[in-house]
Design goal:
With 274 residues, the protein is α/β, with parallel strands linked by helices. It has 2 domains: 2-134, 3-Layer(aba) Sandwich (Rossmann fold); 156-271, Beta Barrel (OB fold (Dihydrolipoamide Acetyltransferase, E2P)), CATH 2.40.50. The chain is built from 9 helices and 15 strands. The protein has helices at residues 11-25, 38-48, 64-71, 88-96, 108-117, 126-134, 188-195, 242-251, 268-271; strands at residues 2-7, 29-35, 52-56, 79-84, 101-103, 143-146, 151-154, 159-165, 168-175, 178-184, 201-205, 208-211, 215-221, 224-229, 234-237. Strand 14 (224-229) and strand 15 (234-237) form a beta hairpin. Helix 2 crosses helix 3, helix 3 crosses helix 6 (126-134) and helix 4 runs antiparallel to helix 6 (126-134). The longest helix has 15 residues, at 11-25. The protein is elongated, with a radius of gyration of 22 Å.
């Protein structure tokens, strides 16, 4: 039996979640308390010793991350499912850290999935979520991507490209100047939602997301535009995305980054006029 508590500063939200849990999960989950502020929540957690905490991101005063920091990220002995209503940065933070979250009003199917998966989560990712929540524009923060039997921690700048593989996604990234491959249990669409926060990533094709900082050159072959990446892979650039690719490439300050050493490589102006 899972011992759970609810921490939310809004009574109506606590009540709504309580009813959902009571009506649909009473056989495998026992609600042992609720709190509406950080101090009461800390006291309740120490006394009730829950397995799972449904934690609102925005508490008044403070945040759910403040509560976790007060415990110490390395000393947390309970799992967390975040709840949030308005704060988009909070959602991004939680996505970056592979932690479950529920958007209010809570959907029963999403609640069911979160409860099913919560035991797989590891507490060392709460700190990463907290960091991103506080510094959403810090592009040096690590992200976490979940694989079949492991999790990948990587800096976005080290990711070369992401390739769709049915319902999975292959991540190609740099480790000490060597290219490594890691398969995660999410679709390319999910990865794109995370990495689109970084201006260097571009959806070149329905099956590929590329880091523009790791593009070597672009050439034209058999009627198609081909992007050569630093890992010696080649990614087709969708015809509909050529204009946006050119504009975004300039945005990151690499106006002359293409290499045109071969006669098969077209000047950028000709390439995008085709």
């Amino acid at each position: 039996m899972i011992r759970a508590i609810i921490v939310d500063d809004l009574e109506v939200d606590r009540k709504d979640l309580w009813i959902l849990l009571k009506n649909n999960h009473s056989q495998d989950l026992e609600l042992v308390g609720e709190a509406d502020n950080i101090l009461d929540a800390m006291k309740l957690i120490k006394e009730a010793k829950p397995d799972l905490v449904f934690l609102d991101v925005l508490l008044d005063p403070g945040t759910g991350f403040d509560l976790l920091e007060n415990f110490g990220f390395d000393k947390i002995d309970f799992k967390v499912i975040f709840t949030t209503k308005y704060d988009q940065f909070a959602i991004k933070a939680i996505k970056f850290s592979a932690i479950d979250y529920l958007v209010k009003p809570v959907d029963e199917n999403e609640l069911k999935g979160a409860i099913f998966n919560f035991q797989k989560r590891q507490n060392d990712y709460y700190e990463l979520a907290s960091q991103y929540y506080k510094e959403p524009e810090n592009k040096e923060l690590e992200i976490v991507l979940e694989g079949v039997n492991a999790k990948l921690k990587s800096y976005p700048k080290d990711i070369i490209r992401c390739e769709a593989d049915n319902n999975y996604c292959n991540i190609y990234f740099l480790v000490n100047s060597k290219v490594e491959k890691f398969q995660i249990t999410k679709t390319l669409k999910h990865v794109n939602e995370i990495l689109c926060e970084f201006t260097c990533f571009f959806r070149a094709h329905k099956s590929h997301l590329v880091n523009l900082n790791h593009v070597k050159q672009v050439h034209y072959r058999n009627g198609a535009s081909i992007i050569d990446m630093i890992d010696n892979s080649q990614v087709e650039l969708s015809r509909n995305n050529k204009k946006e690719f050119k504009e975004k490439y300039k945005e990151i300050g690499k106006k002359s980054a293409f290499s045109f050493s071969s006669i098969k490589i077209l000047p950028i102006t000709k390439l995008f006029n085709r």
